[in-house]
Amino acid sequence: MKPFVLLATRAEDVIADVEHAAYLELGGLAPDELWRVRLDQGPMPALDLDDVSGVIVAGSPFTSSDPAASKSATQLRVEREISALLDDVLARDIPYLGACYGVGTLGTKIGAVVGTTYGEEAGTVDVTLTDAGRTDPLLAGLPDVFAAYVGHKEAITTLPPSAVVLATGTACPVQMFRVGTNAYATQFHPELTRDAYVQRLEAYAGHGYYPPEQAEQVLATARASDAPVPRRILRRFVELFGR
User: Fold this and answer.
1) CA-to-CA distance for 116 and 133, rounded, in angstroms?
2) What contacts 72, CB < 8 A, 6 or more positions away?
């Protein structure tokens, strides 16, 4: 099988390594089947899409809808590089799965309105499949409603007609969408186990994902939570598009 490529931007080594390990485990991938590119550490290397099974964009501390003047040089470079790659991904309908930050990058690329209106503090929410989601091959066999981990400052406000909403939520109307046949983005995190979720909450304390004064309560709730269904999306993505 040709490898998948994982585009990552988390600068914290421990969190980045846990994230990488989760994509390997939940995707059922061997180390040589997932090429990790840490865009936080340097420019994107030359990437021939004929040599990969698909592209995965992991979550990020970056917020796509922030004013350009407030973004770091690294974030601006990452956004340019992912945008250029998406030109080819969308033109060729290459398999693509963006988790959380992938919504901002893919949404911005297709002309969606991305902003802070539907941001959600870190927590577990119910995600509901739409009619299109229930018939989508990537979501085959998933229950109509399932728990998922979220934590995001921005979200899709309006999608263009070229995109299909696959899942919704009470506080965030676009929890998952598809462009073309093979490009997907989830607002929730399909790569998180409970332990990884707790670890990430601890690592990003004070970054605006939950009120600092509520840290003890947020972490206690997280330790008692579970959201197993979204993890199945990663394995299904590999099964569908591994080649």
Assistant:
1) 24
2) none
Q: Tell me the pLDDT tens digit for each residue of 199-222.
A: 888 888 877 788 888 888 888 888
Q: Which residues contact 125 (CB under 8 A, 6 or more apart)?
A: 147, 148, 150, 169, 170, 171, 172, 188
Q: Tell which CATH classification among 3.40.50.300, 3.40.50.880, 3.40.640.10, 3.40.50.720 matches the domain 4-241.
A: 3.40.50.880
Helix, strand, coil proportions of the chain in percent (round to 5)?
Answer: 40, 25, 35
Q: Using an 8 Å Cβ cutoff, are 68 and 61 in contact?
A: no
Residue 26 is predicted with a pLDDT of 95
C-alpha distance across the termini of the chain, in Å: 5
138 CB-side CA count, 13 A: 28
pLDDT tens digits, one per residue of 169-197 = 999 999 999 999 999 999 999 999 999 88
- pTM equals 0.94
Domain boundaries, the chain: 4-241
Q: How remote is the C-alpha of 121 from its chain's centroid?
A: 16
Residue among 66, 234, 228 at smallest CA distance from 152: 66
20: phi then psi, degrees, rounded to nearest 5: -60, -45
Q: Are 120 and 126 in contact (CB under 8 A)?
A: no
Rg (CA), the chain: 16
